[in-house]
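Posting this for the archive.
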Amino acid sequence: MQPRHHQLQTEPGTRPDEPGREDGPRADERAGVVTALRLGWWMADAYHHARTTAPDDGPAGRPVAPRSKLSNLTEMSGRQRMRMYLDGVEVALRQIAALTRHDGAGPSTAAARSRIREVGDDRPGDVEALLVALDELNVDVLRWAMARDHRIGIAYRLGRSLADTVRRCDAEQLPQRFGGRQDQLRRWLDELAGVLPPYAAPVVRHSMASWTAAVRAAAAGDPGEAELRDLADELRNQGDLWRSVLTGGLHPRDLLDEEHYAIVARNLIIRDRRLVVRAARGICYPVLVPLLVVLLAVVGVSATAAAGSPATRAAVALLGLGAGLAAVWRALAGPALQVAGEVNRPLLHGELVVQMAGCVDRPLTAARAASRARRAGTG
């Protein structure tokens, strides 16, 4: 089934995300925030790579003859990989400087690059010096980003923390990853919601809450939840999806199909019905009942005072009653429909977020399926 997301309105406060629809300072701010988030993730990966992988020149005696295919990212030497990370940092810094109209000098990667050239397997002190240089670069980037724009600095911190949260780990380390750090990540997502791609912040926040609940339930030994080892196996895949959503590479609405929209429509109808019942109860006694009493009294007096036969008086009463009911309807229908439209926007937004977060949570679903299969096999 093909997605039909263009049939529903976009997130409140945003324009339809069509190419070329958004320009000017608002677009630059969004691009700067997204680039800073990528930069934070990139820096965290660079530091982790330097801590866990020796930045060597690759296997000794590498053949000079051409390979059967081009080398892949995983086949790069540790030293080449570190240079690639620093190249990415420089590109991101130039992009942010252009988006924020900054002409001054930004953070320099020269110190870290010099440490990469010096480091070797037989000199562990050089690795420590490289880590210190990378951390100093991180501090310089953070200071520079916060000075350019507060939200760009927040985005840099968000990307860095998210990368550290979803990094591959053992099952025993997983509960610590989803401890108090999640509260700070949610606060940053709330602060950046207006400048991140549409629906990105609430969808990732909702998905993160699902993961936090799953990890805590698994740590407590809940037999109905996925096991910690299965959650740990899928954590990096989930992180890649979060990054794609937050940086605009994946619009979560593109994951929805007709079945998801049918669920949204059904839930909206149920909620609207409840709202109508509650509104009717709130309006009926304090507003409608007095109006109807006054209307009936006026109609009764008019019919009694009218001259002619009983049929004429009945016609006068019916006409007066109809005109009065029409006036009441015109007085109440316009504001009521306007209120209903305002109420339905956040309801639609909330229902879409729930469905999109469920689609983004595919790694969590896979972890639960793996745990169920293992339990069924051992049972």
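Confidence is low (pLDDT under 50) at residues 1-21. The CA atoms of residues 303 and 317 lie 5 Å apart.
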